[in-house]
Write a structure and sequence with these properties.
The complex is a heterodimer. Helix content of chain A is about 60%, strand content about 0%. Chain A has 23 helices and no strands. In chain A, helix 2 (about 55-70) packs parallel to helix 16, helix 11 crosses helix 20 and helix 12 packs parallel to helix 16. By secondary structure, chain B is an all-alpha fold. Chain B contains 3 helices and no strands. Classes of the chains: A mainly alpha, B mainly alpha. The interface of A and B includes residues 47 and 296 of A.
């Protein structure tokens, strides 16, 4: 099948007014969240995963504010930034925050995040700075072990606070090379935490596109993996993480790919339909059970983070030249390549908001996201442990000219490993089955301990097909 | 287009089936609990000892990975944060 060249025609960008409207709405929610939750946070007696520390809310609101402040040429945004900053200041430098900086030097920068962002916004506080300085020069300033993306966060906070400004791009740090930006992400069986680490490494290395550092790998490699990660998030309807993945394009200063532009359309449509970008944490039943302040606090505590992600995305898109295109850019995949992949996906009888958006695309737009669809299908097959299906899908993708992507090469490696392990796995299964059978025979005459306590039989057909088990959940990091 | 299920409905059906008899579980605990908690046998018991006889789980949806609620219903129920 012959590859098509990208069509070089001017593509209309997303409406600035619409992006401003969305960002303004997010800033209004942020104002509500600060008013209701910044003093005491939120404690959920029924579901502890909803519990919110006020430090987290304050820091994340200040981060949103910093990002929004870069597009203050829009009066609606400027007015809200000024109002929100005024509300945030007392919380950013509260007694609680000051004590945290003072007593726990190893996390002083974490407590001081909002103070640092507000300082950068033009709201300094010399006395708070002095306490922070003492903490950061204490013996125990580095007395906490952190994963690479959290090291990057500390480096970024230090640069932001120091006010170090250099016109030259710095070399990538050791932490950046050790982060998900410096090495290929596991796109088939990696955890949500891996994608989270990836998105946050992008935020800190790019300095939210204000003073970017040098990337440890080519941006094209990083964005190819971002596309696969985006597919995963859309398929899981994980808009919190999906929105953060989408930030990679504007923050790296690269043009929106067709897949990324499609992702933006999906989250914008979901936001329009729900009135805000939702996460699974906000449950309708709880909303109906609660009333008054309790209800408002529950709603804000469970919804604010994903709402903020949409605000960050719109603020990034409002930077000159960063708006996503209205129509998906020309196909880089062969005409008709999306159809067979959609057949694979539809056979799963799973659907989601992204699938509804596909229906609204033109045929050429569908082909433009064939690579994204292919990566979604590959991950589904891998997570179902359907290696026969994975091989079939991979062969189809290769035939369609879609296999030049990291998810495909990882899938090929996976199949190689499965082939190497198969003889041992089959032998183990055979022995297990034999042991079970002998136990059954023994139990006819007498009680056999193996019948009750022996290894569980491996279910499934006798053909050479590995049992379909969902992948074990890896560690999950809260956002 | 969407194939969605109501988790509440599934839970209700499971409860209605009486597959789990909460009353009977409570009765056993009431009968045996005091004596087992005071028993001398090591490694056994109900309260804070090495073996638990009954576990009650709250099954959380995976963080970030569960389904979001119906979008139109969310819009209707969240007027506070709609502009």
């Amino acid at each position: 099948m012959k590859m098509r060249r990208p069509i070089q025609v001017p593509v209309a960008s997303w409406s600035t007014a619409d992006l401003v409207r969305r960002l303004s709405r997010v800033l209004d929610v942020a104002t509500q969240a600060i008013e209701r939750l910044a003093t005491n946070g939120y404690a959920d007696s029924q579901d502890r995963s909803n519990t919110l520390r006020c430090e987290k809310l304050i820091s994340e609101t200040a981060f949103l504010l910093l990002r929004a402040s870069k597009v203050q040429e829009h009066p609606e945004v400027r007015q809200r930034v000024i109002g929100l900053a005024a509300r945030l200041l007392p919380h950013a430098r509260s007694e609680r925050m000051l004590l945290g900086v003072c007593v726990e030097p190893a996390v002083a920068l974490d407590y001081a995040q909002a103070h640092i962002y507000l300082t950068r916004l033009g709201y300094p506080d010399a006395a708070f700075d002095e306490v922070l300085r003492q903490s950061l020069t204490s013996q125990v300033r580095s007395g906490r072990e952190r994963p690479p993306h959290r090291v990057l966060e500390q480096e970024w906070l230090t640069r932001t606070w120091d006010g170090v400004r250099s016109s030259s791009r710095r070399s990538s740090s050791l932490a950046a090379r050790h982060s998900m930006l410096g090495r290929p992400m596991d796109l088939l069986s990696g955890s949500r935490g891996d994608v989270y680490a990836f998105t946050h490494a992008v935020l800190y290395v790019t300095d939210i596109n204000l003073m970017p550092q040098r990337l440890p790998r080519p941006a094209s490699d990083i964005l190819a993996e971002a596309e696969a990660a985006l597919g995963r998030c859309l398929d899981d309807e994980d808009y919190d993480l999906g929105g953060e993945v989408l930030l990679a394009w504007p923050l790296l200063g690269k043009a929106w790919s067709a897949a990324a532009a499609f992702g933006f359309r999906v989250v914008a449509d979901v936001e329009d339909r729900a009135g805000f970008l939702p996460s699974p944490s906000t449950r309708l039943q709880r909303l109906h059970e609660l009333s008054g302040d309790e209800r408002a606090e529950y709603l804000l505590a469970t919804a604010y983070h994903t709402i903020y992600v949409m605000g960050l995305l719109c603020a990034a898109a409002l930077q000159p030249g960063n708006a996503p295109p209205v129509r998906l850019p020309g196909a880089r995949f062969p005409a008709g390549s999306s159809g067979p992949i959609l057949q694979f996906l539809d056979a799963d009888r799973r659907s989601g908001h992204w699938r509804e958006e596909v229906e609204r695309l033109t045929a050429s737009e569908r082909d433009a996201i064939a690579g994204l669809l292919f990566s979604v299908a590959l991950r589904r097959k891998a997570s179902e442990r359907d290696f026969v299906g994975l091989r079939e899908l991979l062969a189809t993708g290769y035939r369609l000219g879609l296999a030049e992507c990291p998810a495909a090469s990882q899938a090929a490696e996976l199949l190689d490993r499965v082939a190497a392990a198969a003889p041992m796995l089959l032998e183990a299964r055979r022995q297990s089955q034999a042991s079970l059978n002998s136990g059954r025979v023994g139990s006819e005459g007498r009680e056999s301990p193996s019948a009750d306590n022996g290894p569980a039989p491996l279910a499934g057909p006798s053909e050479d097909r590995t049992e379909h088990q969902p992948a074990a959940e890896g560690p999950v990091l809260a956002n | 287009m969407s194939h969605r299920v109501s988790h509440q409905e599934i839970v209700k059906k499971a409860l209605d089936s009486k597959a789990v008899d909460f009353g009977a579980i409570g009765k056993v605990i009431a009968e045996l609990g005091p004596s087992v908690a005071l028993a001398d046998e090591p490694w056994e018991g109900f309260c804070g000892t090495m073996r638990g006889f009954i576990r009650v789980y709250i099954v959380h949806p995976p963080v970030g990975g569960g389904p979001v609620e119906n979008l139109a219903a969310l819009r209707a129920a969240t007027g506070e944060i709609q502009s």
